[in-house]
Amino acid sequence: xxxxxxxxxxxxxxxxxxxxxxxxxxxxxxxxxxxxxxxxxxxxxxxxxxxxxxxxxxxxxxxxxxxxxxxxxxxxxxxxxxxxxxxxxxxxxxxxxxxxxxxxxxxxxx
Length: 110
Prior knowledge:
two-stranded antiparallel ribbon; 0% helix; 35% strand
């Protein structure tokens, strides 16, 4: 029997979708505490400055001097499921990752 612990996990809404700013697409900004426990749990981002001579590896030099790091991922809802357009920050979702990659996953509102 396959280990499903890495395929399904509980994630949380990274921002509040309100009457003024409702969810208008099939995507939700979520935080994944198991993957990024030290990052602030919100939908903001940080800009990190790097040395101009920095290279990720010898074949791929980085031309930028700053990198934007997001605190959340925008993931789609599972097709055919219902999800309200207005909900609070921290609302739980189930994240399904059939490929094992968070960015290729989809959400189910619980």
